[in-house]
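PROTEIN DESIGN WORKSHEET
SECTION A - STRUCTURE
LENGTH: 523
TOKENS:
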């Protein structure tokens, strides 16, 4: 039986329950019917005996020379009308005047007569000439109250058993119908259960549950199950860690989990999505959703979460390195052009102009390098500024370093600093190109007291004040298309470092980031 499927085990168990229930009900009905039939028989015999004993014709017949002649027809008539098995009228000493079998008349009554002689009406079960019977015996009194005769009315046990058999047959038929209906219902329930459990047994289902729990706790990626009503029904350890969810998050609506609006909207959408980037307070997540359906009905949504925070940081560094490579390529290209110009001037016999041109170009390039190296002594940021300057120059935007800049190695996470400064400069260059010429971006880096300040200003059209709060959300962009992750990544890195960011209006937009310096960098 252990090898049976869960549906088959449930079917067998429910059939046993139905059979036992029906059998118990039938037995109880039998005993109850037996008691009721015996009670009814006692009541009928009592009523008949008392009625006959109280008849004036009976008392009158007892005064005749041969009472049987009058009493026997009367007793038989009443017996047939009342459907009892016998009515015996007897003398006080028990000699029968009447009996269904005429041959028993004149013989002594078989039964208890003492209580009736004492004036009582009593019922008993006794075996007489007709076999076991339920009988009632009562006295016949004259006007003075003296007992003149006794009347006994009875119904045989055989007749009572026949009545009981009829009732038991009816109850048995009802029991069989109930058993059939219960078995059919149990079979249908078993079929439904088998369909939902795919015919698996209890041990297999138990193993599946154990595997399910083990996988949920072992998988590093986050997994959520959201039902059709938008309620979180399952959340594994990875999802709790990635989203910062409490232990009792399951059973709560996704709108009440305190997640970023874009992520909340995705979880509640009930749509299929693939590899969407979403930002929380301190993480970059790749989110995919898949709707689970049964036919045309949606059962809920499976959500997978992957942590791309480290990958995003590495990607940012890779972009910076790519920018440095592009800057070197651009510089090499410009150097080649300038060298060709110098060589051509020499060939044309104008060495003085060649020297002047080469000196001016070298001075301009060296000034920028000297300025960056002298003011920004954090090597990664210095390299980033030189690369971004070359990229901006290629796009026709002047990137200049504020004379007020003065920044040493401040002990902050360089990946976050690259993400903040790189994205602010990229956005500023894009904004400056959409403004009126000349396109210009100014960068200021300095550490004052216990704060590192990064300020990036552009000559673009500026930022609408109503869009400032929205600008740091995922997907926001002024370009009309695109992912819009730049400013949201900046805001995330600033939060991670415990700093602040604000936007003010200038000729364009001015982004100012203030980051608290770690204590070890202040000593």
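SECTION B - SEQUENCE
RESIDUE ASSIGNMENT:
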């Amino acid at each position: 039986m252990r090898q049976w499927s869960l549906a088959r085990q449930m079917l067998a168990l429910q059939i046993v329950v139905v059979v036992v229930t029906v059998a118990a009900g039938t037995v109880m009905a039998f005993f109850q019917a037996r008691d009721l039939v015996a009670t009814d028989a006692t009541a009928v015999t009592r009523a008949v005996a008392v009625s006959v004993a109280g008849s004036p014709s009976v008392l009158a017949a007892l005064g005749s020379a041969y009472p049987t002649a009058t009493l026997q027809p009367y007793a038989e008539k009443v017996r047939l009308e009342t459907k009892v098995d016998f009515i015996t009228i007897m003398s006080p000493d028990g000699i029968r005047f009447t009996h269904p079998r005429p041959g028993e008349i004149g013989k002594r009554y078989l039964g208890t007569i003492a209580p009736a002689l004492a004036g009582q009406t009593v019922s008993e079960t006794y075996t007489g000439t007709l076999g076991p019977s339920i009988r009632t015996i009562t006295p016949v009194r004259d006007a003075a109250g003296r007992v003149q005769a006794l009347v006994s009315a009875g119904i045989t046990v055989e007749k009572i058993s026949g009545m009981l058999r009829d009732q038991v047959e009816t109850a048995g038929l009802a029991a069989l119908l109930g058993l059939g209906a219960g078995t059919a219902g149990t079979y249908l329930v078993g079929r439904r259960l088998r369909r939902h459990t795919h015919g698996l047994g209890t041990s297999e289902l138990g193993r599946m549950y154990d595997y399910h729990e083990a996988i949920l706790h072992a998988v590093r990626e986050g997994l959520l199950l959201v039902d059709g009503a938008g309620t979180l029904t399952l959340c594994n350890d990875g999802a709790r860690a990635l989203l910062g969810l409490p232990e009792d998050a399951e059973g709560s609506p996704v709108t009440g989990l305190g997640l970023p609006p874009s992520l909340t909207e995705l979880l509640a959408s009930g749509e299929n999505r693939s590899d969407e980037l979403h930002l929380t307070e301190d993480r970059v997540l790749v989110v995919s959703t898949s709707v689970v359906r049964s036919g045309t009905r949606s059962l809920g949504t499976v959500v997978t979460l992957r942590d791309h925070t480290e990958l995003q940081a590495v990607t940012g560094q890779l972009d910076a390195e790519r920018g440095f490579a592009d800057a070197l390529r651009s510089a090499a290209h410009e150097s080649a052009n300038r060298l060709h110009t110098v060589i051509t001037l020499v060939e044309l016999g104008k060495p003085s102009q060649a020297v002047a041109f080469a000196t001016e170009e070298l001075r301009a390039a060296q000034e920028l390098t000297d300025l960056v190296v002298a003011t920004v002594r954090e090597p990664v940021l210095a390299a980033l500024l030189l690369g971004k300057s070359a990229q901006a120059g290629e796009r026709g935007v002047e990137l200049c370093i504020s004379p007020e800049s003065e920044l040493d190695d401040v002990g902050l996470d360089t990946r976050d600093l690259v993400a903040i400064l790189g994205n602010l400069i990229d956005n500023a260059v894009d904004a400056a190109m959409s403004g009126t010429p000349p396109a210009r971006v100014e960068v200021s880096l300095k550490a004052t007291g216990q704060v590192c300040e990064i300020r990036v200003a552009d000559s673009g059209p500026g930022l609408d004040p109503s869009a400032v709060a929205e600008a740091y959300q995922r997907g926001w962009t002024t370009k009309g298309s695109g992912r819009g992750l730049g400013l949201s990544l900046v805001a995330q890195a600033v939060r991670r470092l415990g700093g602040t960011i604000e936007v003010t209006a200038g000729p364009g937009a001015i982004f100012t980031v203030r980051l608290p310096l770690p204590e070890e960098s202040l000593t």
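SECTION C - NOTES
The chain is about 50% helix and 20% strand.
The chain has three domains: 6-163, 219-307, 312-522.
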